[in-house]
Amino acid sequence: MYWFSANTMGLSVKEKKERDKFNVQLGDHIRKKRLSMDISAAELARLCFMDKPNLLRIEKGRVNTSIFILHKIAAALDLSLEELFKGF
Known about the structure:
Layout: H1 13-36, H2 41-47, H3 52-59, H4 67-76, H5 81-85
Helix pairs in contact: 1-3, 2-3
């Protein structure tokens, strides 16, 4: 039996850990893509029409971002979603 709370959004402890690990790996991958293209965090945030702190939270894996935001990040890096996830 699982106990759910608003913090885990109905996920088991194991699923939450897996999600958190995925978010950190994805954020690190986005940061590496950005750096390989020599784009600052501030510039990428501006291109995505978001605040720099929000972008940095994504890159640090602190948020579970939406596919829409990932699409905006990929477009700002001049990548498709497929290319953004390539090698991830």
